[in-house]
């Protein structure tokens, strides 16, 4: 059952990120159809994240209380309604409202998915399990890009959005009928508890500003600026700066997606293997991820120095793969700090990181506009900004994050999980 749960969560992440990324893949036809400027397009990209951080926390908290199946089923059906609603979008205000609502209901997915997977997998496999969910995001955002581009070209951008709505309906049905809420023993234990113990606001506040939680969140925040830039601006960058055609852009995005999945899943697996061997959070989680992010930031900055199209794709493959290592491992660190509130802790991480989504698209759009006719300079400045930010927060992450050491061993948790299955 654990693998069935993981596979379905993987496909949910595909839909989640396809919903996010299709707006970028359809950027050129949408901007032409609705006559949007770069600044207005930055507003469209930013609007998705205006409610995302808040609803991510609320949704994950409810999932901790009433169960992931109920919450994910509801929000996925809402995604479907909103995607079908795109057929009625005819102007910028409606497009912005659509993006705000879609972001609001897609915000809870990632933290709930990470927390839900955490229930089914022992610590030595959680990095891998989370990397599978993250890879679903990369598949949805990049690897199926040629398919999404083909749909946009042949069917029009509105019909392509509606097709993703249909996929959401199929997923919601599959998740409800093919999975269970928790492993048997965990479920029986949960039934004996009337409710979760309340957390004092003062104690929770202290936890959030602890070095482990704060600098893990900041590292995630810096990486998510790159996540948003890739989703909103990379397709336009490859067309207008690198000089690719629409079809070549789709293939380039796919290559970056495939290579980056292999890289960050390898990093996650290495982290898991080291944790199994030494049970050392600093070495296996913090040092491995932090070092990956630093190398990834340097590769990202190299695009400015070597603007060759081939190198741009290669560098983005490495940069995305290595910097994304924080996405699957970060949740394991946060959940470790307060295991009984896994959904809430992960939502704090993802929602705080997604604040970057509010700022990144608009800042990039403004930088390009301020660069006047020299659009390449604007793109390069935005890339340099992201590289420096990731580098700085990765150094702070390595230096200051010291996760809480739990007494329960990896083997004992695995044994309990295996018995429950």
Automatic annotation (TrEMBL):
Query: Per its record, how is this protein called by name?
Result: MFS transporter
Q: Where are the transmembrane segments?
A: 47-64, 71-90, 127-153, 159-179, 212-237, 249-267, 287-306, 312-335, 347-370, 376-401
Q: Where in the cell is it found?
A: Cell membrane
Ranges for domain Major facilitator superfamily (MFS) profile come to: 5-406
Keywords in UniProt for this one?
Membrane, Transmembrane, Transmembrane helix, Transport
Is RNA-binding included in the keywords of this UniProt record?
no
**Annotated membrane topology:** Multi-pass membrane protein
Check the record and name the InterPro entries matching this protein.
Answer: MFS, MFS_dom, MFS_Na/Anion_cotransporter, MFS_trans_sf
Where is the major localization of this protein? Answer: membrane
Offer one Pfam family short name for this entry: MFS_1
> In its keyword annotation, does this UniProt entry include Transmembrane helix?
yes
